[in-house]
Amino acid sequence: MNRLNLFAIATIAASLIASPAVYAATSIHSPVNAMFSKTKTIKVTFVNDSGTSMQVKAGDDVVTLESGKPVTLHLPVGSHVVANTTTPVHQAGSLITDVSSALNGAIVHIK
Question: Are 77 and 103 in contact (CB under 8 A)?
Answer without folding.
Answer: no
